[in-house]
Every structure is written in structure tokens, then in C-alpha cells.
Recover the amino acids of this structure.
């Protein structure tokens, strides 16, 4: 599953941090961990964290992790996010966290996202086709 990180300021006090389970206060930096689903499989899943509560960065194995929308933050806050990401990368024993991190703008991400959705859709179609042919093979064997 494709994943990315979306950063921004909390728009309200309503979102809970999945680590400490406290609400993220409006205008605080929030870190969204987003799992992208193939089209037709429901909405993307988004989990929010306080910046300080982020302890790992996950993503697909051997793939770059996109960090989206960082440019919308104030200069100092961008710095905090980059420091946090660096710190996690350095302190991580886990291979999955030792990936290249790319900082993307919303626009760059959107283009990427469209591509990801297409890829997922494509893979899903391939899988369906594979299953279809598998069934055909099985039917053949029965004959
Ligand atoms: Zn928290």
C-alpha cells in the first residue's frame, strides 16, 4: 500500500493524535500519515499525530517517502519538521524507516497522487485478470 506524510496546521481542536490520544490544538503542526487505497476501495486512511509524537515514518519498502505540503508551513516550523524526520531516520534501526525522504508541494504531490491512483488501479486490474485466467485454467482442468 502506498503511504505518504502530509503536514500542516490543525484546522480545529477536534483531531486526536494517535500516539498520545490527546487532541491536536488548532494551529499546532499536525502530521498526517496517509494510506492510499485503490479507487473503489473506500477513502484514503489518514492518521494524525503531533509533530513530537511522531516516532517512526513508514512507507512502502524500498521506496521514497513523500512528505507533502511542508512548504505551507512557516520557515521555522518547516525546520522543526525536517529536524524531526532526520532524527527519526538516524535513530531508526528499522530498514523501513531508512528511506529517502522527498519534500513535495501540494501540486507536485497531486500529480504523483494521480499516478499512484492509476498504478493502483492498474495493479488491481492485472490481479483481476490473473484471477480470471486462473479460473479459466481451473475450468480447463475439470474438462
Ligand atoms: Zn500526540
Amino acid at each position: 500500500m502506498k503511504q505518504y506524510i502530509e503536514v500542516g496546521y490543525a484546522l480545529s481542536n477536534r483531531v486526536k493524535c494517535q500516539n498520545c490520544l490527546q487532541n491536536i490544538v488548532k494551529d499546532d503542526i499536525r502530521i498526517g500519515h496517509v494510506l492510499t487505497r485503490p479507487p473503489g476501495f473506500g477513502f484514503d486512511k489518514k492518521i494524525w499525530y503531533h509533530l513530537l509524537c511522531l516516532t517512526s515514518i513508514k512507507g512502502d519498502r524500498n521506496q521514497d517517502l513523500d512528505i507533502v505540503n511542508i512548504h505551507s508551513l512557516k520557515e521555522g516550523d518547516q525546520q522543526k519538521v525536517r529536524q524531526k524526520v532526520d532524527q527519526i531516520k538516524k535513530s531508526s534501526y528499522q530498514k523501513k524507516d531508512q528511506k529517502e525522504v522527498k519534500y513535495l508541494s501540494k501540486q507536485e504531490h497531486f500529480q504523483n497522487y494521480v499516478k499512484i491512483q492509476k498504478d493502483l488501479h492498474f495493479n488491481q486490474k492485472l490481479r483481476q485478470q490473473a484471477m480470471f485466467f486462473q479460473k479459466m485454467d481451473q475450468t480447463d482442468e475439470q474438462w
